[in-house]
Amino acid sequence: MKTDTCYCRNSRCQFYGKVGTSSRLVFHDWHDGAPRFRCTHCNHLIGARAGTAYAGIRTDESTYQSGARHLAEGTSIRATGRLLSLDKDTVCHWLPRLGTHCNRVMSYFFRNLHLSECQLDELWTFIFKKEDQLTSLDKLLGIYGDAWVWIAFSPVCKLVPAWVVGKRTLPNARKLVLRLKSATDGHIPFFTSDELPHYADALLEAYGVWNTPLRQGNRGRYPLPRQYPPPDLCYAVVVKERENGRVVNVTTRIVYGSEPQVMAALKASPVSTTINTYGVERNNLTIRQHSRRMGRKVNAFSKKRDYLEHQLTLAFAYYHFVRPHRGLRQRLPAPIPTKGPRASYKKWKPVTPAMAAGLTNHVWSIDELLSFRVPPKQNW
């Protein structure tokens, strides 16, 4: 675990948030198997694990890293406990810490993203009970039953800049689009999705411009201001016709923008030649593989929504920073020989979605993800 990024966590200290040679930290002692530092300016004690996913963990770091990798790869809590010879409650206590830490890491990196294309979709699962098994009280509470993972996916760099867990309603669609907008640099990407009408309403509310239409005639009230799509908003949908659960016909429809705008966006896209949602649908399979709770017809479904969100956050962080994506790999200028008597040649450079988006410059290890310290917001 790196200690050169430690900083004084006293917000009233003059050296709050400063790292490296700019900090005033000196070694003080050892605490719970990790070094502890003292700020020479305010005498505040700072543990080396503070601000990381290791904070408050008593398990050996290598075991903790293995557990985090198992959970991120889709292993269930009980199976992770059996593999590591730990109690399931111990592994269960790890998940909120891992999810909270990974959420802070991605919030720090997912800022001012430039996305040229974005695909929207939703993924079904359920919490505690399926919808048809809910009682009247369960329906009134609204915390159990069907749950949908709303996904915003960039097919160019394979990035998932925003997601939301909730019901299949318009407020959750608005929340997804607003999260996506807050993570981008202001440029409006080319949007595609299925025929769910909530996306059109959410995009209009997030990117629309207010304008008052002209009054018709000389009598009556003046019209109220209305929202109109901006000229650079391009949104098209893929309409699938099904019979007996099978897709029999696929058509497309432009909702916002004109046909020349859509054709220009497709011509400029390095991955799309037609209006489609192939990227986000393929990513849905990756999500189900990396989240045991998203599997179909299994007894590993989530009992609480918070734990589903924590596991998905861990899986997304692992997917973005640690796990190379085969579709993003780059061919090396010259093959590199590997070790061994029957050595083969390494021809490809592994690339993660975070590397493709320009957020990092190498494939992270699981320890780098867990030990990354997010700077104070004033330094963002």
Q: Main traits of this protein?
A:
380 residues; alpha+beta; six-stranded mixed β-sheet; three-stranded antiparallel β-sheet; 23% strand
Order of the strands making up the biggest sheet = 6-5-4-7-10-11
Amount of helix = 25-40%
Q: What order do the SSEs take from the amino end to the carboxyl end, as H and E?
A: EEEHHHEHEEHEHEEEEHHHEEHH
Spans of at least 5 consecutive residues whose pLDDT stays below 50 are: none
In DSSP terms (H or I, runs of 4 or more residues), the helix count works out at 11
Strand pairing plus helix content: what structural class? alpha+beta
The beta-strand count equals 13
Strand content: 15-25%
Oligomer: single chain
Main beta-sheet annotation = 6 strands, mixed
Q: Rg from C-alpha positions?
A: 24 Å
Q: What is the mean predicted local confidence, pLDDT?
A: 90
The rounded distance between the terminal residues' Cα atoms is 23 Å
Shape: globular
Give me the secondary-structure topology.
Layout: E1 25-31, E2 34-39, E3 45-47, H1 61-72, H2 77-84, H3 88-109, E4 117-127, H4 136-141, E5 145-154, E6 159-166, H5 170-183, E7 190-193, H6 198-207, E8 209-211, E9 226-228, E10 234-243, E11 246-256, H7 259-268, H8 278-290, H9 305-322, E12 330-337, E13 345-349, H10 353-356, H11 366-371
Parallel strand pairs: 4-7, 7-10
Antiparallel strand pairs: 1-2, 2-3, 4-5, 5-6, 8-9, 10-11, 12-13
Helix pairs in contact: 1-2, 1-9, 2-3, 3-9, 5-6
Description:
Helices cover 32% and strands 23% of the residues. Helix 1 (61-72) crosses helix 9. Among the domains are: 1-50, no CATH class; 113-212 and 225-286, no CATH class. The model has no long low-confidence stretch (mean pLDDT 90). The protein has a six-stranded mixed β-sheet. A three-stranded antiparallel β-sheet has the order 1-2-3, with no helix packed on it. Strands 8-9 form a two-stranded antiparallel ribbon. The chain is of the alpha+beta class and 380 residues long. The two termini are 23 Å apart. A hairpin with a 2-residue loop joins strand 10 and strand 11.
